[in-house]
Structures are given as C-alpha cells and as structure tokens.
Amino acid sequence: MTTRTLTSEQVPACPEFRHLSTIAGIAVDLRYASRDNFVGRDLYSPLDCAWLHRDAAAAIERAVAWLAAARPGHTLLILDALRPHRVQEQLWDALAGTDLRMYLADPIRGSIHSYGMAVDVTILDEAGRELDMGTGFDDMSERSHPVLEAEMLARGELTARQVANRQLLRAAMFGAGFVGINSEWWHFDCGDRVAVRAGFIRVL
After folding, report:
1. Which of 33, 88, 106, 124 fits 44 for a cystine, CB–CB 3.0-4.6 Å?
2. Residues 46, 26, 145, CA angle at the centre, nearest 5°?
3. Given this model, what pLDDT does residue 1 score?
4. Band of residue 200 on the pLDDT scale cut at 50, 70, 90
5. Options 89, 142, 157, 184, the catalytic residue
6. Residue 184 is a catalytic residue
7. How far apart are CA 106 and CA 58, in angstroms?
C-alpha cells in the first residue's frame, strides 16, 4: 500500500486531524517549538504542529477524564504531538555518528509522531508544576527507560515517588488505549505502529 501524505501546511484542511486547542483539560508546551530540547533550537516555527490524528485526540480525551477522576487537579501536559517528517529528519541528522539514534525512529521507517498518532506527555500537579519523573523530557539515558525502572530504583538512581509518578502517567495513558515504549517514559503510541504506518496519513 502506498503511504498517503500531506504537507504540514495542508493539515488544517484535513478532517482526519484535530488541533490540540479542541481538547479540553490539557496543557500544551511543544518543546520542539522552543529552544527547550536536545537540539537547542526551534524546529517547528513557522509550522503549527499542535495537531493530532482524530483517533489520538479522542484517546487523549479519555486519558484526561481518567486523570481527572483519579487525581483531581492534575493535568496532562503535551510536550510533542504531530512531528512532521521533515523535522524527524533534522533530529536524526543532529545525532549522526552517535549511539543516541536509538532514541529516534529512522526517517526511512518513519516516526509515529509524523502520523499524529504518538504523543510525548507528562503530568502537572495542582500548582502547575511538572511531576518529578526522575529525568526531564528527551533525557537520553537509561534513567528514562521504563523497562529499567526496577533496576534503577534498586540502585538508588530513581526514587519510589518518581516511579509512582511514572506509573500514574502510564495508568492514564494505557487506560485510554495508548501503548508505551521501553526507552522513554514520556512517549506513547496510539495503536499498533505497523497498522499506523500502513493505513494513516504521514505528514511531511
């Protein structure tokens, strides 16, 4: 099957995508639209990347409802949503020659972010502060790996509170239908990656 594609500039006119501003109860701080990322520069402007596929947007709404019931006053903070393929290529190039490329999807295969079917997310407390997850967003170290949390806890590299905060985030996201990955506590896919790459629109 030939992958359907759109440019970022065409997304607002496509009914398969929803703007983050249409999702009630979330906060948004797209880190690649600022200098607060591992590249150290704004990679999105002048593009508006505050979009998700409508399926992922509906799943975020379910996560918002779960969190509101489980932890009143806490809020999902979206750190990244739709990431155009052209930006994925820039991120890949920025890590050329390093082992850190393991944290990125090869542009040849394509990131699920480029379909609007992945989100990077954390939680804000009642005062609007990010919960302590043990690392920041895009920390490319083993402390970011959910699969290693028990080991990191035993070694004192993560605290019980940090792990509990991550478990709260996963409970909200998994309950809404998202799937996590082994290497980044903040990243969640909406649905099966193979199915997304085969059947959804990739944004260039």
Report:
1. 33
2. 85
3. 44
4. very high
5. 184
6. yes
7. 27
The answer, as to whether pTM is greater than 0.85, is yes
Burial label for 167, CB within 10 Å (0-12, 13-18, 19+), is middle
- As a whole number of angstroms, the distance between CA 140 and CA 18 comes to 30
Task: Provide φ and ψ at 64, rounded to 5°.
Answer: -60, -45
According to the 3-state scheme, what is the secondary structure of the chain?
Answer: CCCCEECHHHHHHCCCEEEHHHCCCEEECCHHHCCCCCCCCCCCCCCCCCEEEHHHHHHHHHHHHHHHHHCCCCEEEEEECCCCHHHHHHHHHHCCCCHHHHHCCCCCCCCHHHHCCEEEEEEECCCCCECCCCCCCCCCCHHHCHHHHHHHHHCCCCCHHHHHHHHHHHHHHHHCCEEECCCCCCEEEECCHHHHHHHCCEEC
CA 28 → CA 96, 97, 116, 121, 154, distances in Å?
29, 32, 15, 9, 33
Mean pLDDT of the chain: 96
Picking from 100, 147, 113, 105, the residue whose alpha carbon sits closest to that of residue 31 is 113
Residue-wise pLDDT for 80-97, tens only, equals: 999 999 999 999 999 999
